[in-house]
Amino acid sequence: MHKLAMQAMDAHGGLERWNRFTTLSAHLIDGGVLWAAKGKAGVLADVTVTIDLREEKASHWPFGSPARRSRFEPQRVAIEDIDGQVLEELLQPRDSFHGHLDHWSDLQVAYFAGYAMWTYLNVPFLLARPGVESEEVEPWQESGETWRRLRVRFPPSIATHSAEQTFYFDRQGLLRRQDYNVEVDGTSGAAHYVSDHKEFSGISFPTKRRVFRRQPDGRPAPEPLIISIDLDRIVLS
């Protein structure tokens, strides 16, 4: 594991402390132009997201209505009723995005939101998982600061935006930005900014996330705001 990854984990509360927990839940408010563009405005506007910290699993509730919730795993996604009865399911959900559909089904939204939030909420501790490779690349200048960058490659067993991503850390080791290509949406490049770090159970989380299109020079396009994510009430158990 790269020294910068270790520094980042220490800055966010430490891997030893993180490994005490198995589940995370948070209140999530989602915005941005993506959801309406995919025909799903409001589906995740105000929800609770729950993730497993050992296996790649996630759930959003309510999902479209208080009587529905999503269930995500890399090879299966489902919509359930409040009693856990399966209403819809899709196996090998990533394959359904071939052709980069203009409008997503509920199951496709559940897959995208599931892997995305599982990835986001596990960073930077995700960098300690078996099969995750990282190397430091040249630093980045932005907002009058110098951010160190870690280029990360995820194994096929982890469902995420793209196998290769870049993480930016400030001098304290806190995450400030994450770059990736959204493969399920035509490999569009994203510059994902995080801010307002707050501590929950001794772990530091960025509570504001803003995603913009990434331009060829690496700078973010100022408009539109693709996705906004605001988090609070983070509970680790």
Characterise the protein shown here:
The protein is mainly β and 237 residues long. It has four helices and 13 strands. The chain has helices at residues 3-11, 15-18, 34-37, 106-122; strands at residues 23-31, 47-52, 58-61, 68-73, 76-81, 86-91, 133-142, 145-153, 164-169, 175-182, 188-200, 203-213, 227-236. The protein has a ten-stranded antiparallel sheet, with helices on one face. A three-stranded antiparallel sheet has the order 4-5-6, covered by helices on one side. The model has no long low-confidence stretch (mean pLDDT 96).
Summarize the structure.
With 237 residues, this protein is mainly β.
Name a few traits of the molecule.
single chain, 237 residues, mainly beta, outer membrane lipoprotein receptor (LolB), chain A, 10-stranded antiparallel β-sheet, 3-stranded antiparallel β-sheet
